Amino acid sequence: MFCWTTVLIIRTLLNVVVSAEQDVPDSEVFCVFMDSCILPCSFQSSRDDDVIHWFQGTGRQIHVHSFYNNQDQLGLQDQNFRNRTSLFQDQISRGNCSLLLRGVKVQDEGRYEWYTNTIYGSRNSFVHLRVDAPVSEVHMSQEENRITCSSEGIY
Questions:
Q1: Virtual CA dihedral for 76, 49, 42, 81, nearest 10 degrees?
Q2: Integer Cα distance of 149 and 128 in angstroms
Q3: What CATH code would you report for 27-133?
Q4: Which residue, 12, 37, 47, 136, shows the most beta carbons closer than 10 Å to its own?
Q5: Which residues have a Cβ under 8 Å from the Cβ of 20 and sit 6 or more positions away?
Q6: How far apart are CA 56 and CA 135, in angstroms?
Q7: In 3D, which of 78, 87, 85 has the Cα closest to residue 102?
Q8: Given a cut of 60, is residue 92 above it in pLDDT?
Q9: Nearest to 132 by CA among 20, 37, 25, 12
Q10: Is the pLDDT assigned to residue 30 strictly greater than 50?
Q11: Cβ burial, residue 127 (10 Å; 0-12/13-18/19+)
């Protein structure tokens, strides 16, 4: 009898923990078109053999950046992210796995997943990137009684 009660209590507690984890909303980051942007990520580093992967989309669709064997591993990186991503390698041992994305494009908008694996276990989470392209310059011209306003790069 005691054993079943213990099992039921443990199972109930696990269900509460799992439900709480599933209800955690994505982090949301707003980035300005063509600027650099940081997608946040933190984990418990083992200071050795840390594995970090960043993906765009759900279900690990597009490889954005990978790090393992104490160095960047960009062989599977999608060409749209080439030469635009980096990690703060001097801070990985302190648990910072944030991704620096340079030259943000409209196509970068969407959901990103980060995944870490250390001797302490695996962890993943999601960051939703929103791209903002504010109006920086407006051109006005007048021809007779017609005024035309135009701008570029607005999103």
A1: -20
A2: 33
A3: 2.60.40.10
A4: 37
A5: none
A6: 27
A7: 85
A8: yes
A9: 37
A10: yes
A11: buried
User: What's the token pair of residue 53?
Assistant: 């992967």
* Amino acid 40: pLDDT: 97
pLDDT, tens digit, for every residue of 33-89?
Answer: 999 999 999 999 987 789 999 999 876 589 999 999 999 999 999 999 999 999 999
Domain positions in the chain are: 27-133
Instruction: Return all residues near 72 (Cβ < 8 A) that are at least 6 apart.
Output: 65, 66, 86, 87, 89
Q: In the beta sheet, which residues pair with residue 128? A: 28, 111
**Rounded to whole angstroms, what are the CA distances from 35 to 21, 91, 95, 100?**
32, 22, 25, 11
